[in-house]
Amino acid sequence: DTGVSQNPRHKITKRGQNVTFRCDPISEHNRLYWYRQTLGQGPEFLTYFQNEAQLEKSRLLSDRFSAERPKGSFSTLEIQRTEQGDSAMYLCASSLEGGRPDTQYFGPGTRLTVL
Amino acid sequence: RKEVEQDPGPFNVPEGATVAFNCTYSNSASQSFFWYRQDCRKEPKLLMSVYSSGNEDGRFTAQLNRASQYISLLIRDSKLSDSATYLCVVLPTSGTYKYIFGTGTRLKVLA
Predict the structure, then answer these.
(1) Would the CB atoms of B99 and A58 count as touching at under 8 Å?
(2) Which pLDDT score is estimated for A1?
(3) Phi/psi at B63 (nearest 5 deg)?
(4) What count of CB pairs under 8 Å joins A to B?
(5) Measured between CB atoms, which of A41, A109, A111 is closest to B103?
(6) What value does the mean pLDDT take over residues A57-78?
(7) Residues of chain B positioned with their CB less than 8 A from the CB of A40
(8) CA B8 to CA A102: how far, in whole Å?
(9) Residue B91 to residue A26: CA distance in whole angstroms
(10) Residue A98: pLDDT over 80
(11) Average pLDDT over every residue of A44-67
């Protein structure tokens, strides 16, 4: 399977713990995006990378959230001191620069439950 | 006002029916438009891009009206397998690549 992959698929944690999610984009895609989706809502943009540079961050991305893409390939999203309001599906997507239109392909998501 | 608005539904239609969804967007400078399909607890999957001239893919037709700032999706001859949430997506302006999603419209096709 050469699509976007995410790990873990599910994560249950206690409030106050730190969690880290991983995303592996489609291999030739140089853009990578993180979104968050809660029940009954569409996905909301968190941040995106072009190669290893983080070019845009949403105000939803509080100081407790950090994302990295150190070598321009896979990315990690860390949430520190989790809160119950962080419970959501975290979706990763990737796209190829120069695509017309810029079409993003989504991974299966990591479902986070904070108890 | 939300940047992208959709009627959340649900739309319950019989098999074989034609159903249409609309979506409005607030930013007149928006560049690109898409419809994604999302099955329950799964990731969004691209259904089709939406072009100014309108485009068709089998039973699905998408239209863009820039003057009125809305996008539509028409599904003809509905199948049970079309049951899903349909997400309207807007790429707001050049220089950013973040998608703005509507809340989605739920469709249930009944046997």
Answers:
(1) no
(2) 55
(3) -130, 150
(4) 56
(5) A41
(6) 92
(7) 8, 103
(8) 26
(9) 21
(10) no
(11) 92
- Of B82, B100, B15, B83, which is closest to residue A48 (Cα–Cα)? B100
pLDDT tens-digit series, residues B93-106: 767 889 999 999 99
* Chain A interface residues (partner B, CB cutoff 8 A): 31, 33, 35, 40-45, 48, 56, 58, 91, 93, 95, 101-109, 111
For residue B42, give the nearest of A111, A84, A41, A7 by alpha carbon. Answer: A111
Pairing of strands A10-13, A110-114: parallel
For residue A19 the two structure tokens come to 């969690």
What is the spatial distance between Cα B51 and Cα B62, in angstroms, rounded to a whole number?
Answer: 8
- Tell me if B13 sits within 8 A of B107, measured CB to CB: yes
Number of H helices, E strands in chain B: 0, 11
* Confidence bin at B81 (pLDDT 50/70/90): very high
Both tokens of A96, joined, read: 């190829």
Here the tokens at position B83 are 């049951």
